[in-house]
Design brief:
Order of helices and strands: EHEHEEHHHHHHH
Number of strands: 4
InterPro entries: Glutathione-S-Trfase_C-like, Glutathione-S-Trfase_C_sf, Glutathione_S-Trfase, Glutathione_S-Trfase_N, Thioredoxin-like_sf
Radius of gyration: 18 Å
Shape: globular
Number of helices: 9
Domain GST N-terminal: 4-86
Distance between the termini: 41 Å
Protein name: Glutathione S-transferase domain-containing protein
Organism: Didymella heteroderae
Family: Belongs to the GST superfamily.
Strand content: 5-15%
Amino acid sequence: MSSKPLTLISATPSPFARMNRIALQLKGIPFELQNEIPWESKTQTPKYNPLEKLPILVFPEGDGRSPVYESAHIQTYIVEKYADKGPKLLPGDVDGNLMAKQIVVLSVGCMDAMVLNRWEARREKEQQSQKWMDRQDRKIDGALRAFNDYVEAAKKDGREFVVGIELSIADIAIICTVGFIDFGEVRPGWREQYPALATYFDLHDKQKEFAETRPVMFDLTEKVV
């Protein structure tokens, strides 16, 4: 594998890419961040991902590896391809690893629901589907309840982390998702509703790699919907 840095193509506020950025930083894998808005006409996204979505992990020219896309899969790629670099970010046993990856999937689904809701709200009022938005809201609320359940179960077992005894991709995923909920003010009052989750979030979000990757909004210059 090339010693040159990787490139992670991301949209600035993206909680999806934030997961990958944190994993790369924790493992000490050199990478450069390239920000793009995949919906705009000048985007280079289709060059690397046929689904035209971010994030995308791109390797140096001549490396021989194809780009890796979809945040959950990028996360799996990072922890498995670079398993020799600590921290592992996985518990290490089959059931624990599968549970950690399941929580990543749950988190990405919640992030997707927030993005879909936001795009629907950008439509003209008469074109919006309240049933569609209600469905996305149920996904967000369901994920928040599940996150809190995971945190409370860990607390009951005397654990700081939701899967295993060390920080894993599951914790990274939850913090990034809840951070996006907080950033977008998607659920005002969530802290009062889920105090265990709030305490857990504040504990981990202050860690250096999390603090350095908090979302920053971009300006859309082209109308999409």
